[in-house]
Design goal:
The chain is mainly α. It has one domain. α3 packs across α6. The radius of gyration is 22 Å and the shape is elongated.
Length: 97
């Protein structure tokens, strides 16, 4: 005679541990930011430019806004927008995985 299981295996697999729920909640909160949305939008709309904007933002971080703008012949405001977009894309990629 076959004995019925004491517990339902599938039920135990679907129950998340409290620490997992906390992590998931934290990740979801990171997705609910303007920076995440900006990075997601840019990545979706311009996938061919993602690597370039990240590369430029890293260069701006290393050189500084004013120095980068002068060297590239652009404005400080344009360099700032590039920096912010690159940071947003990197943030999006880090959070989204």
């Amino acid at each position: 005679m076959y004995a019925s299981p004491i517990y339902d295996w599938a039920m135990t697999q679907s129950e998340a541990r409290p620490d997992q729920l906390e992590r998931d909640s934290f990740i979801e909160s990171l997705m609910d930011t303007d920076l995440y949305s900006m990075g997601a939008f840019f990545s979706d709309e311009h996938p061919d430019l993602v690597e370039e904007v990240v590369r430029r933002s890293v260069a701006i971080e290393a050189r500084g806004l004013k120095s980068y703008a002068e060297a590239e012949g652009g404005s400080v405001e344009e360099a700032f927008r590039t920096l912010l977009t690159g940071l947003a894309v990197r943030y999006y990629k880090a959070v989204a995985g």
